[in-house]
Amino acid sequence: MSRSPERISSYRRHFEDASTSSYQVRVSSPSPIRRDVGRCRSASYTRKASAVSSSMAVGRRTISSSCSQPLMTGVGMRAICLSGGGPGVDLDQAAAENREFLNTRTSERQEMILLNDRLAAYIEKVRSLEQQNKLLETESRALKNRYLKPTGLRLLYEEQLQELKRLAEQMRIQRDLAIAAKDAMAGQLEMIKVKYEEAVEMRKKAELDIEAFRPDVDAATAARIALEKQLENLEVELEFLRRVHKR
Fold first, then answer.
1. Would you say residue 85 lies in a domain?
2. Mean pLDDT, to the nearest integer, of 176-204?
3. Domain count of the chain?
């Protein structure tokens, strides 16, 4: 729980005003019966009250040293204040209030230390988040420049990539056409093979027929040769007869 400045100032006003006024009123009021003795007591009380108030002020300024050192007991304070006789100052209540004030200040100091540590942790966390935010912004700008705004060498690479894609598409079309032409040529080759096999079969058949008709051909050839010889002989004889007839 945090302590507000108004509450701290109210503590300070309460202790300073109450202690100062009570000490001055009680100590400076002389006894109506014995003025000389009262004057002496007033002087002694004034010196003692100033010493006590100065010790309280020193205790407020040095809280850590006051907390480490034990406070003076109420009996000792009462013995100091009442050694001269007469009405004494209520130092027990003042000491209790002083202890309460010191305890309050100590707890407030601890709370302030804790809050300062938490604030330092928050500040460090904010700085870390700011650095992370800057890194993320830098990465975001780099990604935007990489994917959204191609310029320079990347633009040249993209143009070359588009050209290569276009050439690849043309080569794919040519490959498809070549595959189609190959399939067509394969079909034609199969037809030519069939025709060639048919021609080979016909040639074999013709050769067989020739071999079958060869004896007849040889006989016809021999008969033709014989007839040609007879024809020549007849022509010679005819020519001879013509010559004889002319004579």
1. yes
2. 93
3. 1
Distance CA 68, CA 106 (A): 11
For residue 68 the two structure tokens come to 């480490």
pLDDT tens digits along 58-110? 444 433 343 444 344 444 444 444 444 444 567 888 888 888 899 999 999 99
Neighbours of 152 (CB within 10 A): 7
Domain extent for 56? 5-131
CA geometry: angle 26, 29, 33, nearest 5 deg: 125
Asked, for residue 19, whether it belongs to a domain, the answer is yes
151: left (phi over 0), alpha (psi -120 to 50) or beta: beta
Q: Is residue 220 part of a domain?
A: no
Residue of 22, 41, 43, 23 whose CA lies nearest to 32: 41
| 155 occurs within a structural domain | no
